[in-house]
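Hi C.,

You asked whether I'd gotten around to modeling the 377-residue construct. I have! Everything is below, sequence then structure, no commentary in between.
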Amino acid sequence: MFNKKDERRNACMLTGKFKKRGYDWWWHSFTAVNNTTGQEVPFFIEYFLCNPALAKETPTLGQLPQNKADGTKPSYLMVKAGCWGEKKVQLHRFFAWKDVNLHGKAPYSVSADDCFASDTKLLGSINISEQDAASHPEWMCDAGSMSWNLELDKQVAFNVGFGASALFRALKAFEMYWHAEGMKTLVSGTITLNGESYTVKKENSYGYADKNWGCGFTSPWVWLSSNDLVSNVSGKRLTNSVFDIGGGRPKVFGIALERKLLSAFWYEGKPYEFNFSKFWTGTKTTFSYEETAEEIVWHVEQQNHHALMRTEMKCKKSDMLWVNYEDPDGNKRFKKLWNGGNGYGNVKLYKRHGKKLELIDDITVGHLGCEYGEFED
């Protein structure tokens, strides 16, 4: 069963060869309310670690022209924060490793200056002037300011199984690993963005928290998750439900596994999992992506021996941004990694009886976290 919290999987994974060629990040997304206008705004905050064994006196940024020419790899803690929607913004703050205090073992924590992250708490601030943003394209971010003080209560986990087990972690078998300690997370606290104050309340935060680590990224890159779910059968809000879909083209021991997704649906306390690594479940997946003039659209169908899940999601391009990363080699292989926090759509969940399907629920989805991108080398 996938709903198993595991602080060890949520610990820092930059050991062995990943110290010199590896990244590890903790991602958080949620919804806040503007204290003046009452408008909902989806936010994200991430703490991204890269190549600690290559540390220098200052953060080493891979997108600097000289570093690209020399093949100098990046090394830093990057704190990423921002929001989606009409005022979308992506802010980055970099720290040298000598200024970082990392407790890598479970339960993890990482801090630098006034920025802090753990399983239960997020603190921090970023302030980027227009002049600095324009003068430093290697920062890969916009101008703006944001500060936050947040509490996390992780309710439902997506433990993907033996693919991220202690053995496979020790072997560094996968190019990119995934663990969601809080695919449903209750978030509370305060945010200030560009001078405007926001409040985050547990009951309507629609929070999410996961982590990825490894030595490279997957292409294509797919992510869809929401816990804002309403049944079209009963008309009731599903208060103990969340789904999470992720993957694309994982590599294990250097061998690519084409078009593979992992997904889990915690439906009112009952688990439905579609996990290709659990081969005995007979999981099969088809998915497609399309970009229209105004929207990004995802179609996913997954089935195992006992259930089937059809997912149709959309997000307005005007509300999304291109989230920016460089890999541990200093390559920025995604030019358009679409990333959003207020997508919407529909999920149909079925019970399988051989070839016959019995509808469990037809569900309207809101506050969708979503992502899609492919390498453009």
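If it helps when you're writing up: Residues 16-373 form a domain with the AttH-like fold fold (CATH 2.40.370.10).

Thanks,
B.
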